[in-house]
Every structure is written in structure tokens, then in C-alpha cells.
Design goal:
about 110 residues; alpha/beta; five-stranded mixed sheet; globular
Amino acid sequence: MNDPFHVRVRHVGPGVYEVSVAGKLDVATAPELRTALGKAMAGCRQVTIDLAGLEFCDCCGMSTLLHAARTAKAEGSEIRLRAVPHTLARLLRLFTTDSAFTIEPPDP
């Protein structure tokens, strides 16, 4: 049985959005996140992607996150990652892509 995938976009201030992701981010669900990020990034200065509910991320999911980071940088805005699961943080470091994002430190 597949766990449901959820993306929630929330406006949190002038030019600032938060996108919460829950479930498995993979080839089947990455397009939904890409669409949500595209809408959130339109004309904003910062998007924080909260990954606290992320259970799994494959290469398509990682590609979606990296695409958002490149797009944001080209438009002069910023992508921040919050509550990055250990496995994803490790992959970002291994592939030296962690510098593409501002990664917020975990809560104490």
C-alpha cells in the first residue's frame, strides 16, 4: 500500500512561502512538488521547504529540489530546507549539492 503524498503551500509573510512535504518523494510524486514550488516561487524572495514529514526521496525528488534551487538563484530568490532527514542530508553532502540550499539547523 502506498503512503499518501502531501504538499502544502503556505504564505508566511511578504514574499515568503513555506512548502511542507510529507510522504514519499519519488518519480510518481515529484511533478506535484515541482508544480507547488513553481507556484510558490513566482515573484517571491524566499521559499522554505519543510521536510519533517518526508519518508523517502529518490533521484527524481532530489532533482526536483535542485531544479527549484537553480531556478530560485537565477531569479534572485532563495530556497531554504528545514528538518532535512538524515539520509537526504547525507546524499546532499555526498553529491556536494548541499551548497545549493540554505539548510536550516535542526531544532534543539
